[in-house]
Amino acid sequence: MSVPDYMQCAEDHQTLLVVVQPVGIVSEENFFRIYKRISSVSQISVRDSQRVLYIRYRHHYPPENNEWGDFQTHRKVVGLITITDCFSAKDWPQTFEKFHVQKEIYGSTLYDSRLFVFGLQGEITEQPRTDVAFYPNYEDCEAVEKRIEDFIESLFIVLESKRLDRATDKSGDKIPLLCVPFEKKDFVGLDTDSSMLLGLKRHYKKRCQGRMRKHVGDLCLQAGMLQDSLVHYHMSVELLRSVNDFLWLGAALEGLCSASVICHYPGGTGGKTGARRFQGSSLPAEAANRHRPGAQEVLIDPGALTTNGINPDTSAEIGRAKNCLSPEDIIDKYKEAISYYSKYKNAGVIELEACVKAVRVLAIQKRSMDASEFLQNAVYINLRQLSEEEKIQRYSILSELYELIGFHRKSAFFKRVAAMQCVAPSISEPGWRACYKLLLETLPGYSLSLDPKDFSRGTHRGWAAVQMRLLHELVYASRRMGNPALSVRHLSFLLQTMLDFLSDQEKKDVTQSLENYTCKCPGTMELLTLPGGPTLPPVPFTKLPIVRRVKLLNLPASLRPQKMKSLLGQNVSTKSPFIYSPIIAHNRGEERNKKIDFQWVQGDVCEVQLMVYNPMPFELRVENMGLLTSGVDFESLPAALSLPAESGLYPVTLVGVPQTTGMITVNGYHTTVFGVFSDCLLDNLPGVKTSGSTVEVIPALPRLQISTSLPRSAHSLQPSSGDEISTNVSVQLYNGEAQQLVIQLENIGTEPLETLEVTSRLLTTKEKLYGDFLSWNLEETLAQFPLQPGKVATFVVNIKVKLDFSCQENLLQDLSDDGISVSGFPLCSPFRQVVRPRVESKPVNAPEGGKPGDPSHMKTLEAILNFKYSGGPGHAEGYYRNLSLGLHVEAEPSVFFTRVTTLPATSTRQCHLLLDIFNSTEHELTVSARGNEELILHAGECQRMAIQVDKFSFESFPESPGEKGQLANPKQLEEERQEARGLEIDSKLDVHWRIPSLKRTGEASVEGLLSQLVLEHLQLAPLQWDVLVDGQPCDCEAAACRVGDPVRLEVRLTNQSPRSVGPFALTVAPFQDHQNGVHNYDLHDAVSFVGSSTFYLDAVQPSGQSACLGALLFLYTGDFFLHIHFHQDSASKELPPSWFCLPSVHVRALDAQA
Amino acid sequence: MAVCVAVIAKENYPLYIRSAPTENELKFHYMVHTSLDVVDEKISAMGKALVDQRELYLGLLYPTEDYKVYGYVTNSKVKFVMVVDSSNTALRDNEIRSMFRKLHNSYTDVMCNPFYNPGDRIQSSGSDAAEPGFPVITTWIPTCEKRMGGRPGHGPCPLGFPRMPRPLTAW
């Protein structure tokens, strides 16, 4: 016997072996249809008894195994069922002949046989025959099962008769010696009757008895008499042990074990092995049918066995409880049996099968360690030179058994060996499919899953070297199978999951072969279905390149949509009546985890930045890299990139255009690397930092592009400016100069531009700026709206630079010695002294000081023009865009007013303003003021300009207190007032400069340099004094009068101050000026007063008027001056002295005749 | 002397595996891998025993034609597997035990290293492949498995971590 049946299990010992075979030409399909029906009848309760017969069907059975039938009767073919096709009566004899030939093969052991003929009709079928059954076709054969049952009953009758025959035989004289095939020659010629010594003869007889007992035990077991068989086996063991008949002792022990196993484990030991397909001989249905109600009954009521009265003596010999082995004993006895078998080389198959049976028992007992010992033993049983197929079978079954005892790794190991055996070089036609299939089955044993998701969590935990080998083998096997898609998938998987374990050279090799494969069959993201049914999930290359960070980028500042503030009410959650609740805030925070608080705009290119790096030791070419999104139609614009070897983090920007509005979620990205398409979802990527992946897409907005008449500047505004400026323009202007900035507004988007708002913001500067820096008129531009796509509108902004024209200190210092000084005019009043700015004599080379016109004097002004615009559907949703234009103005100094002083004019209503003007440019410059001549200044020259100005009555206009006065503090109010005064003065003066060589003009403003003192001088006092001589107002010109005539003198006071003043006392003192600094007041002889020289004025109400009259009489001719002064009384002290500035009256007394 | 030494994590993946005949390393990988079945079985059988009374040494896991595979399990379920040549009869149970004890000490040293991340592969600095047939694990210097930026790192710790004391000498 050479062909082991690895499917055997202990309970097979109680079965009857029936071979079902086709004769002639029977299609496989038909045969197995019938075979299946036949084998469904696998157990039969015997009539009139509680015994159960078990049948084991085989469609193939090597006849040499049959020869071992005496050794273990379940190996004996006792029944033969032949299935044949026969369509005509004339074929019938031939067919029947074939049946007989078939019978011959197992003839020696057959109890009975049947022939099932399909297709034959006619008179032959009429013959009543027990061994032949006719069926018209394969469909029409309901009676098959019944036939089989009858057949089995007939088998049982033979079996039972044999059993009884053998069992009762023992008292007879001669018991034949049962032999296994290889023993036969040993006993040839052995004369059992005569030529033996007595001892030998007794020995021989015991041997015969022992073997026969064992045989009877087998028959009892098959006949369903478990208890009896146990008894027989025990007796057999006793007998055979005494004669050292080891092979049969082993068989007896094994029989004992089998019977005990049947007794202990009625569920069966080989139950769930669905692996019978390797044998190809039995069907899974057979295994499923192994349930043994009979055996159960035996356990419950073993006494029932003897009710038949068969062999009553056995039960008396050995107690029932002793008969059945304990589970531990079963294993011991198996061990013993196997050790006996191992003494015989020819019994290798028996030993092997015993091992397998023992392992199955141990698996049920959950004694894996012991089972592994048996298996270890089975591995080393050397039957003979095995064919490759047998090797595969053996390795497979070892694998299955290891699996059975829970040794998954060992199982995988043997399965892999089996797979390798399928494609051994010695095999002419390697079975790559089988190899691949077996390799797939090893995956769980190596804790390898072909789903890359199982690897993406955390680091790789497994036997990398072993797993890599397996994957390589899968790749190779699938390629040889002719399934390149599988190879690509496996190779991708290898590269993706084992990247950390591949050496640089291996990385190169793997990618090289992957590229070779993908030339023919590009890798896809589809599920691949394997022949066996399982599917291979796609392998996205999330590590080629590795993505570390995904960041959705906001639109550039100029395109960023902003929500109208007026719609504030919408932002407040309407769900809650509370303005603020911590619960709501919490919810918002959660939402924010995912949602990003900026918006993308439909139709605009949106960007996502990935930080990637290449883990490969060579350049990695990533093609067709784009975004995977959901929620919104998104037109992804794929990119191709090439990453240098082992690159560091490398930013990659993926772009796309949302086509509709709503919430868009960036789910991942897709790539093509080495010809493999990958869809990498962010959720599956470990260690990716993302700041949210959902963003709102709002409806389309127009896009505005601006171009200006001024050159662009590379100069960016101060970093702290806050706004993001899209364009910067710069211009250089002289102080006081104005320029127009023409801005072209072009709608480069696809939506009409409907609204535009312009605001400006001056960046904080230390410089004090006078007047409007930027001014514009938007109406003209808005008249061109709505601006259709592609259209251009013009917008004009006026830039006017008016910085402080006052002189810096260092400049003053330079000029302090040049002799220009203001000396007191003879007529100046005591409080009209010019306060000369006394500069301490600093060293000329002051650190910050440079020459006039030095660049350090250049001042920079920066402003931002904001264009808020909107239109299209985005406007309807309340969004706008903001475009900023940075304006950089370099203001060069033009002229300076180094000093400003006033001189009283001849009239008290006027005065002279003296401006020392310094030309700080490098060009010749002319300065003009209203009504004055042009003053030419050479570069760096300083000249004085005198302008006669009317005094101002400020009080009349700038008093806009009312609402303001209460809010602003007095200081601010004062400043404001001063500013307004400056403006007023400036507009009156209207000082211009012109640089003829450059053809540039500008204004010059004195606003900043008017000190309080100067202002006071320029101001009309609120108390306005008028002196009338002879009814003529006398201010600057001399009034003429005749000597001897009384001259009427009227002093009139107009009160413009807000309160009442007075009363005042004035004294008129005439004097003569000798023009040499001497004033002669002693004029009592020359001038005489008519009445009093002192006038009294009553209190004057606000805006009231009062006058007092007097008269003078000049006695001599001459020029006389009248000095009117106040009496020093308390009332006048409350008021500022400048209010009491009375004109000095010049009277020329002429000769009467003249 | 052993031909292969392996340290296997609680979750049954190798932390360290080194064999002396480097040319057929994979064979030992398979051998150690399959031996885990037996280790698992032995541990589960031992499970009921009290922890402090438990014998760490598992004894012979299984013999093959050329080699014998021995096992050892720490209280934290880290397994040590050693493959020795069957022909080497000088190695008795006691020698095997003491080898395992030394291995355990070395492993403890590795664990004491603050730069070692439990669960990461262990890198041995011992040039054990230099002498054929002699897996000398002299010192165990773990490296930073992951460098900054997540790149897998190789080579010794950049901080120049001092060599671990108590080197295992020849056995």
TrEMBL record, chain A:
PANTHER family found in the cross-reference section: TRAFFICKING PROTEIN PARTICLE COMPLEX SUBUNIT 9
Domain of life: Eukaryota
Pfam families hit by this protein: Ig_TRAPPC9-Trs120_1st (PF26254), Ig_TRAPPC9-Trs120_2nd (PF26280), Ig_TRAPPC9-Trs120_3rd (PF26282), Ig_TRAPPC9-Trs120_4th (PF26283), TPR_TRAPPC9-Trs120 (PF26251), TRAPPC9-Trs120 (PF08626)
Domain (Trs120/TRAPPC9 third Ig-like) ranges: 905-1018
Keyword list, A-Z: Golgi apparatus
Assigned protein family: Belongs to the NIBP family.
Domain Trs120/TRAPPC9 fourth Ig-like: from-to ranges: 1037-1149
All copies of domain Trs120/TRAPPC9 TPR region, residue ranges: 369-516
UniProt domain Trs120/TRAPPC9 first Ig-like: residue ranges: 547-675
Protein name according to UniProt: Trafficking protein particle complex 9
Chief localization: Golgi
Residue ranges annotated for the Trs120/TRAPPC9 N-terminal domain, each copy included: 199-266
Nuclease as UniProt keyword: no
Subcellular location: Golgi apparatus
TrEMBL record, chain B:
UniProt-annotated location(s): Cytoplasm, Perinuclear region
SUPFAM superfamilies (UniProt xref): SNARE-like (SSF64356)
Keyword check for Transport: yes
Keywords from the UniProt entry: ER-Golgi transport, Transport
Pfam families, A to Z: Sedlin_N
InterPro entries, sorted: Longin-like_dom_sf, Sedlin, TRAPPC2L
Family membership: Belongs to the TRAPP small subunits family. Sedlin subfamily.
Protein name in the entry: Trafficking protein particle complex subunit 2-like protein
Species name: Felis catus
